């Protein structure tokens, strides 16, 4: 099984290596704009529990970046499947669906880790010093696991590239703005909080922010994220099986 | 080597494959000939595990494709109709990934890549990105990739579609060489001359059914050796004759001119189905 996982992952990494400059630029541009527009321009005018808005914003951007970058593999899988027909090469090979999904999910998680490093590096010139301990990285990795699995599952279910864009617009973009990235979810009405509590990104951004600001994170995030991730991973396995026909 | 029993594939109400029985022995070059939509690609997709069959059985080198899927997949290599190489990877990287998918060891992969790129005459392009290659070169890379894991059976789905005549001839030579090296080849094509030149046996496929199956010579022999075509108010007419002399004698009476030619597989297909292959 390992040879299949390595083959799928290695292919994605070779492509990532060829596109690295473009990918890193793409990973940097949105966070940089958010940092300038929301963080730098507002300066110390906005404070949350004694922290500047930049200190509040950077962990949120880490959560959002890990989500969008790990989910971005959906688009590549989609192109490989419908345009280049490369998915057939994997289907015709003697590897299990588990190996295929794991290889793709790991590649999504690798992209997410790169994006996080880019965001943290961008925060340095703004003079933001936060705590990036093991629980910070664990929450970020679990978050990327959830969304990389979701990417594989949805990429197998859609019937065209246009459908993929629709899914990004309706699922990922609203979550990016409402999942506790730019403002504390606690300030919303209770009914809205209850809805947003269902989103994995809300748990991820709260946990990542709590660790980064040297607070104790909510342990429920470290339960919700892996359970959600495993459920979506199983869903992705079923979707790959479904895509065979 | 390839055994198919009562294979059926349905897409809703459409019967894409309608009860095919087939046996291709080891070392044979078998061609599947039929018009677009006859079920050629569907058969290959089922045999290579890309599509599920609706009913029936199929086995590759004794391994049932449904019950022993992974073992069956190890028996075969596939060159699909569409070029499905990774254009952002180099030629050797494409082959290396394929070798990894088939669990080949690093030393074996490296040796096989060198051997196959020499075999398809592309050794000097091993470090080139696939997107920098011509269409004919990409086809040869696809053949090399399909041979990486030394399959017993090679499936070629329209391997020369869209290629110019010179490149097509070069691919034919390569296919013949692969067969001579002991690989069983299952080829789909709608190029008559391709099937005639390459195949030991040909099956005519129409509407998901095999309507005839034999060697090209025997399929043609039933009609005669020579044909004349002439144009009438009702369209193109064709008549078949056992000898060139008989054909010429009959043709001299045609007022609007005629074409004298050898009988080919297209004629055999036309006489059986009432339609042209292409």
Detailed description of the structure:
- The complex is a heterodimer of chains A (245) and B (278).
- Chain A is mainly α.
- Chain A has one domain.
- Chain A is 75% helix and 2% strand.
- Chain A contains eleven helices and two strands, in the order ααββααααααααα.
- A two-stranded antiparallel ribbon of chain A has the order 1-2.
- In chain A, α2 (20-40) crosses α6, α3 (53-71) runs parallel beside α7 (134-157) and α7 runs antiparallel to α10.
- Chain A is globular.
- Chain B is of the alpha/beta class.
- In chain B, 36% of the residues lie in helices and 28% in strands.
- Chain B has helices spanning 40-47, 69-75, 91-101, 106-119, 135-147, 165-180, 192-198, 216-221, 244-251, 265-273, and strands at 2-11, 14-24, 29-33, 55-60, 63-64, 76-79, 153-157, 184-189, 201-206, 209-214, 226-232, 235-241, 259-262.
- A six-stranded mixed beta sheet of chain B has the order 6-7-8-3-9-10, with helices on both faces. In chain B, strands 2-1-4-5 form a four-stranded antiparallel beta sheet, with helices on one face.
- Chain B is globular, with a radius of gyration of 21 Å.
- Chain B starts with a strand and ends in a 5-residue tail after the last helix.
- The model of chain B has no long low-confidence stretch (mean pLDDT 88).
- The chains are: A mainly alpha (245), B alpha/beta (278).
- At the A-B interface, α1 and α5 of A face α2 and α3 of B.
Count of runs of 4 or more consecutive helical residues of chain A: 11
Radius of gyration of chain A: 18 Å
If strands are numbered along the chain, what order do they take across the biggest sheet of chain B? Answer: 6-7-8-3-9-10
Give the SSE string of chain B: EEEHEEHEHHHEHEHEEHEEHEH
**How confident overall, as mean pLDDT of chain A?**
89
Q: What are the segments of chain B in which pLDDT stays under 50 over at least 5 consecutive residues?
A: none
CATH homologous superfamily classification of the largest domain in chain B: P-loop containing nucleotide triphosphate hydrolases
Radius of gyration of chain B: 21 Å
Mean pLDDT of chain B: 88
Biggest sheet of chain A, in brief?
A: 2 strands, antiparallel
Give the fraction of residues assigned to helices of chain B: 25-40%
The tally of strands of chain A reads 2
- Tell me the distance between the termini of chain B: 29 Å
User: What is the number of beta strands of chain B?
Assistant: 13
Annotated CATH topology of the largest domain in chain B: Rossmann fold
What is the 3D shape of chain B? globular
